[in-house]
Amino acid sequence: MQPNISSKETFLGSPDWGESKYWSYKDLKVHYRVTGKESNPSIILIHGFGASSDHWRNNAEIFASEGFRVFGLDLIGFGKSAQNLRRKIKHLDNQFWANQLSSFLDEVVDIKKNGKVILIGNSLGALTAITTLSERPELIKTIIAAPLPEPVFVTPIKFYFPTWLVRVKSFLIKIVFHLFPLKSLVNLISRTKLITIALQSAYFSSISNDTPLKRIVTVPARRVNASKALRAMCIGMSIRPDSAKGPSIIEKIQNLPNRPPILLIWGKQDKLIPIFLAKKLIKLHPWLKLTVINEAGHCLHDELPKHFNQIVLKWLKNLKNSK
Prior knowledge:
Distance between the termini: 22 Å
Mean pLDDT: 88
Oligomer: single chain
Helix content: 40-55%
Largest sheet: 9 strands, mixed
């Protein structure tokens, strides 16, 4: 584990970084951003829950200026990507988003032509990245997870329930989320000061005057089908098998024959996923590397971008020099 890094310096880049483009996945419209020379190595930025490619406002152009082709992908249900799902797509979870990411790497980034990619994910984006790695390791050079969610149990859960009980549980979860007034809740949070309270839980420093940040989160939440997408996420993430959860995925990656290096970057003041869980995770899996940034919360890439970017670039430089 590397020493803690601390700084109060921040800067606000434009959420409208790079070139805004669209791509089709399963007949659904997917938004992404791209910047940097086409011939440069590719970095894919994957946002966290409730965010979008706009949330990499303080990172993307810096990485591009350092010699990378940078993509920011809006996962289905988020940002400017589709929220009105087709009937055949009933649930959203990290496996679905990993399949979306894999197709994006094949079709848009073009791995065969441009080589393996660097994945950088914040929270849900990091879970999507490691899920992709567990299924398609040939696509990925390295992963930077900032931070990695779902380390709560650290080791995979080994409970086995009869099929009928699993079905009953899934049925009840679906009923609950269909009855729960998600549309009213989303409208309430996105249109009142509750959004500031919710966002502040992911930051250590005050975000009360960060109007662009609030816009990044509230604009997609006010779209007409936002509650439908949220319902699909709530159900999908709740009824996943244990094999699709973080601890099981990490164990699967551990056994890969040519496992790429993974760096965890954690905010020391992360309220959503406390730092002690990160330390427990690397103690159990010492092949994972951890860097801690002091005076940073859950969205450390946006809160202390200067130091986050330096850590990322140093990691990538060392990775290149080690070959």
